[in-house]
């Protein structure tokens, strides 16, 4: 068990501060300073010494003590005492819980370990509490592997195929750009510290363009907003290429030296005159022409792409198309030019040391895609699928709320013959379906080490306070389970702090992490100024031989959505469901002060669409398709474009009007690349509900 290590020698009663890292799934990975008084965390602030954080946290994590000391924190192991999903539990001791879980998992593993499935994502992005001891544990058992696709794998695969890895511009140099395309990103809400650099650029005269179906808070603050239809970004990017070609706004020298497949891409792009893209994207043709001119003639010019635009059928291709744009104009030559989707591929993480895949031995377990967990839990045993899933161990994730097509997810979790263990801070929608809930520590209570997908610093998180109640860190819980099951490998004895040291080995200066809390990776300011892309060809691959070899299109193209508007008269509206500013996925929904800002589950709808349906602002609506029905309040607002409705945030189902959330409507169909979900590729119809049927939220 870990004990807090104050950074300064101080008498117990005097306040001291402890350096940490924000654990949340956010590109900013802020450096935290927690003030501790008498063993209690009294304040969490941004560390002013860390340049990207700059002493500023978002509203969510500024409330961290409220979340940590929340009266509903789970502080003892809980055992189910009512029917599955009833949310009824009885406290039990750790020894009893661990012994029972070890016996149940052991019995399943003895028959077929692949019937056990771990389910986790980025509730904490820490390498220790998110991808170390538990991976060792499941590898040693031979459990099914999990394909962690729920967020970013379409875009990630596209970057790997085009640029060679999840890397790009250094975020700080956006401050020097003259043109910034903020593409599929509500930066003010979900990438605040990038937005601060963009504002610096704006003050220096840069033009900011937001490309987003929703008129987001970020769109409000940009010079221009291009409100395209969801899932049409590749068409827009191809039309931009068309204009770059016909006006010769190209860097021929860069193209000749540092790209592959130019002639083929040129032919493809010439099929996309702006008129064609304007039709597909639903935007004025002039807007496309002007954007192309700006991109072709402004230097330095940069794109901040985010994952919002890849949650559709053609999401991978769309990211491939956008990733071609900086090479065409030679934008990469300047450190303030190019693009950034993710920086995470630059970190030299020693995953083999942390996760120990060698513990699998000769076994090659099947892989379960987390994005289709609904279907997977309902699948019978078969030659193709393998054994029926008998046990699920969930940590750092809330799949009942966040996975698509909740109807099936809930049906799967409700199976009486499924043994479910959930490691959590709170009784989430998923925890309601557990057989055991195990109390996990928060970031203020455990060690961890972090990379970032929005900057290039490594951060160390020291525990600021002792674990609350009987909470144990994820790593500790799997260490304990390994011991109960008699798994003898010495790697199960590594402490959380030892795991921190193993994460980067000698590649990062651990002493520096200990003394200042963060360490910056070294690397060139302009990564691709001289080419050197980490692809097989060493070039920016407009044409990907690897994709072609898999039988895929080697060039990026526009792939229409699975659920294309106009193809099903019953469901004429496209629904997207982007993050709410004051929640982080489904985290923080239960923090009263933040929920008060968000209000209640909300659907944004354009006045024209509302008028056509007799829907009035503030009323209750029924949103439905063949997969389900979801009721919520409606905001009639021009934040929504005509034909598109926005279902914000990922509310806890149990806080919705009918115990559902927006994922009642989303589908389990996958993207073109990366086997990712298509949350924003979803057709619905919306109807007003009679005022008399309006209920108030439970909880
Ligand atoms: N406050 C807050 N911050 C967050 C999160 C959160 O839930 N809340 N989530 C975190 C997570 S998990 C992630 S993955 C990251 C990034 O998460 P993202 O999902 O990229 O989130 P946003 O940056 O909000 O950007 C999404 C934007 O894309 C827009 N969009 C939707 N469909 C399309 C489309 O087809 N094309 C284009 N161009 N735009 C589209 C949406 O309207 C929205 O404004 O943010 C993280 N940060
Ligand atoms: N409709 C729709 N659905 C979406 C999205 C969308 O835009 N629209 N976004 C998708 C995206 S981008 C993502 S990334 C996923 C996110 O899905 P998840 O990764 O499941 O994220 P959260 O909903 O935040 O749930 C994380 C849980 O982990 C818990 N947790 C945090 N730290 C710890 C810890 O140290 N130990 C343990 N045991 N638990 C911890 C938190 O309490 C929280 O309940 O959702 C996806 N779902
Ligand atoms: S959620 Fe993002 S912006 Fe907020 S403190 Fe964490 S890293 Fe920083
Ligand atoms: Mo995500």
In short:
Its cofactor is Mo-bis(molybdopterin guanine dinucleotide). This protein has 699 residues and is of the alpha/beta class.
Q: Strand percentage, roughly?
A: 15-25%
User: Can you tell me the overall shape?
Assistant: globular
**Distinct small molecules bound, one entry per kind:** ligand MGD, iron/sulfur cluster, molybdenum atom
Report the total helices.
Answer: 25
Q: List the strand order in the largest sheet.
A: 5-4-17-16-15-6
Count every beta strand, where a strand is a DSSP E run of 2 or more residues: 27
Helix content: 25-40%
Pick out the low-confidence regions. Answer: 1-6, 693-699
Taking the alpha carbons of the first and last residues, their distance comes to 34 Å
Radius of gyration: 25 Å
- Computed structural class: alpha/beta
Cofactor: Mo-bis(molybdopterin guanine dinucleotide)
Keywords: Iron, Iron-sulfur, Metal-binding, Molybdenum, Oxidoreductase
Organism: Acidovorax lacteus
Domain 4Fe-4S Mo/W bis-MGD-type: 15-72
């Amino acid at each position: 068990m870990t004990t807090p290590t104050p950074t300064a020698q101080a008498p117990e009663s005097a306040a001291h501060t402890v350096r940490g890292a924000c654990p949340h799934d956010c590109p900013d990975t802020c450096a935290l300073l927690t003030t501790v008084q008498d063993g209690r965390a009294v304040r969490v602030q941004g560390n002013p010494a860390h340049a990207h954080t700059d002493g500023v946290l978002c509203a969510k994590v500024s409330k961290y003590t409220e979340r940590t000391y929340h009266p509903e924190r789970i502080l003892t192991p809980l055992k189910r005492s009512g029917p599955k999903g009833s949310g009824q539990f009885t406290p039990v001791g750790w020894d009893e819980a661990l012994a029972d879980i070890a016996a149940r998992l052991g019995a399943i593993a003895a028959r077929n370990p692949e019937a056990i499935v771990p389910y986790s994502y980025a509730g904490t992005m820490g390498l220790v509490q998110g991808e170390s001891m538990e991976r060792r544990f499941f590898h040693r058992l031979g459990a099914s592997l999990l394909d962690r696709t729920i967020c970013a794998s379409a875009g990630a695969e596209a970057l790997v195929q085009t640029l060679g890895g999840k890397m790009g511009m250094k975020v700080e140099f956006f401050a020097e750009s003259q043109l910034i395309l903020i593409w599929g990103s509500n930066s003010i809400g979900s990438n605040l510290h990038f937005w601060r650099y963009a504002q610096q650029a704006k003050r220096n005269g840069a033009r900011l363009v937001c490309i987003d179906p929703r008129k987001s808070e970020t769109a409000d603050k940009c010079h221009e907003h291009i409100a395209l239809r969801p899932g049409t970004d590749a068409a827009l990017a191809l039309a931009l290429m068309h204009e770059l070609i016909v006006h010769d706004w190209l860097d021929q020298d860069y193209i000749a030296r540092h790209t592959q497949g130019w002639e083929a891409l040129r032919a493809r792009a010439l099929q996309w005159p702006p008129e064609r893209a304007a039709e597909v994207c639903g935007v004025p043709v002039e807007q496309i022409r002007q954007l192309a001119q700006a991109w072709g003639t402004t230097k330095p010019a940069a794109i901040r792409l985010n994952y919002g635009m890849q949650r559709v059928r053609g999401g991978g291709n769309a990211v491939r198309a956008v990733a071609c744009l900086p090479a065409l104009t030679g934008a990469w030559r300047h450190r303030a030019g190019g693009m950034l989707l993710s920086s995470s591929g630059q970190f030299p993480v020693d995953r083999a040391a942390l996760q120990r895949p060698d513990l699998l031995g000769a076994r090659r377990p099947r892989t379960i895609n987390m994005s289709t967990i609904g279907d997977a839990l309902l699948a019978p045993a078969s030659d193709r699928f393998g054994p029926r899933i008998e046990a699920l161990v969930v940590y750092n994730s809330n799949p009942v709320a966040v996975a698509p097509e909740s109807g099936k997810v809930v049906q799967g979790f409700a199976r009486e013959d499924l043994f479910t263990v959930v490691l959590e801070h709170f009784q989430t929608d998923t925890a309601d379906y557990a057989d055991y809930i195990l109390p996990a520590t928060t970031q203020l209570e455990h060690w961890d080490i972090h990379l970032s997908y929005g900057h290039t610093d490594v951060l160390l998180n020291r525990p600021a306070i002792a674990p609350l109640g009987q909470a144990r860190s994820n790593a500790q819980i799997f260490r304990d389970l390994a011991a109960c099951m008699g798994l003898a490998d010495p790697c199960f004895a590594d402490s959380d702090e030892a795991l921190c040291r193993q994460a980067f080995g000698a590649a990062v200066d651990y002493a520096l992490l200990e003394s200042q809390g963060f360490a910056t990776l070294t690397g060139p300011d302009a990564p691709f100024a001289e080419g050197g892309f980490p692809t097989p060809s060493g070039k920016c691959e407009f044409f990907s031989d690897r994709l072609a070899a898999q039988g895929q299109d080697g060039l990026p193209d526009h792939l229409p959505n699975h659920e294309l508007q106009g193809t099903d008269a019953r469901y004429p509206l496209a629904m997207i469901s982007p993050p709410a500013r004051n929640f982080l996925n489904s985290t923080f929904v239960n923090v009263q002060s933040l929920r008060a800002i968000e209000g209640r589950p909300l659907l944004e709808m354009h006045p024209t669409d509302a008028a056509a349906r007799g829907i009035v602002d503030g009323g209750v609506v029924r949103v439905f398709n063949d997969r389900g029905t979801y009721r919520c309040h409606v905001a009639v607002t021009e934040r929504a474009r005509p034909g598109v409705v926005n279902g914000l945030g990922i509310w806890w189902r149990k806080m919705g009007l009918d115990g559902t959330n927006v994922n009642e409507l989303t589908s389990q169909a996958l993207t073109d690349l990366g086997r990712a979900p298509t949350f924003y590729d979803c057709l619905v119809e919306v109807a007003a509900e009679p005022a008399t049927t309006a209920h108030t939220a439970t909880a």
